[in-house]
Amino acid sequence: MSSDITVPRPRAHPSARPAVDWRLRFAALCLVWGFSFLLIKVGTGGFAPFQVTLGRLVFGTAVLAAAMVVRRERLPRGARTWAHLAVAGFLLNALPFSLFAYAELTIPSTLAGICNATSPLWGMVLSCVALSEDRPTRLRVAGLGIGFLGVLTVLGVWHGFDGLDATGTALALLASLSYPVGWIYVRRTLAGSGPSHLSLTGAQLLLATAQLAVVTPLFTTFPERFPAVPLLAVAALGALGTGLAVLIQYGLVAEVGPTTAQMVTYFIPVIATAAGVALLGESLTWSTPVGALIVLAGAGLTQARPGGGRGRAAGSRVRLRGSEPPGAERAHAGQRSEKARSGSA
């Protein structure tokens, strides 16, 4: 689901024209991250949550490793950098990926996708506390309040949360909280690092994979069989949603800028909901899509910045998230620079 590494914004080569139009790549990124929650649900139907996360990271790391070989990139050097990347890998990959996998044992993929959209709301609160230069405006505070009302709408608070699995929902919300915690950590420790974004992200995913490789055998037993559909779901989740998505996102940021690229955040819960209902037969009440729209409206307001010049100046630095959904792919709510969401989930 992810890395968030601050790197200099790449300079586009005037003669280098991508073979695929950026709009098609943008749509592909929305679909990949939107379907990540469905893939998690399918994967946990055949494997334990930790096994789904481990497989996701293995396939995602393999894609980035192949890209590094093709581009002749090397892994970063320095024990300090690797230590920070280990923490980033835990907060942005190992922890949220695992939490979402466990959450979807008891909640629908549609709800998980909507919970993921609360990351910008958490991010605004945390950034105001942890980043002294980032102060809330009335508009952003209003966005936070609106987003909170949207979450209550999704959860159906007027029904007393009847029929809602509290544990699974809490795990999904904690996963969404983990992303901005990781973003802030990365900003304070790895911003302006020398290695390329691909090198840093590849190392981060490698370390997250190592963490899951240690933890998974302690809490699960080796699968007796490998059912085809869940296995393909895990492979697609890793190769597409955690590997290829990072490469697509970085290309979009380089071509159209982080402001446009981060708009993918607002399509993810819509696609996750549509996929869950259409393909998995998950139930949908009116409060779910209405609440999701309110959450997205609030998240959009938390991204508001006064004036237009600041955003252009901030474009000299780019933030890249390599996952999920999940995640993020998904947009950072608490930093002055413009952001691009990579995954969510």
Characterize the structure shown.
It is a single chain. With 345 residues, the protein is mainly alpha-helical. The protein has one domain (5-9, 19-344). It is built from 13 helices and four strands. It is globular and about 55 Å long. Keywords: Membrane, Transmembrane, Transmembrane helix. This is Membrane protein.
| Beta-strand fraction estimate | under 5%
Give the strand order, joined by hyphens, for the main sheet: 1-2
Count of runs of 4 or more consecutive helical residues? 13
End-to-end C-alpha gap: 5 Å
How much helical structure, as a percent, in the residues?
55-70%
Kindly report the average pLDDT value: 81
What is shown here, in short?
With 345 residues, this protein is mainly alpha-helical.
Which terms would index this structure?
two-stranded antiparallel ribbon; disordered N terminus; membrane; AA-Vitamin_Transporters; mainly alpha; single chain; disordered C terminus; Membrane protein
Explain the layout of strands and helices.
Blueprint: E1 5-8, H1 22-43, H2 49-71, H3 79-103, H4 109-116, H5 119-130, H6 138-155, H7 166-189, H8 197-219, H9 228-256, H10 258-261, H11 268-280, H12 287-302, H13 309-314, E2 317-320, E3 327-328, E4 343-344
Antiparallel strand pairs: 1-2, 3-4
Helix pairs in contact: 1-4, 1-9, 1-11, 2-3, 2-8, 2-9, 3-7, 3-8, 4-7, 4-11, 5-7, 5-12, 6-12
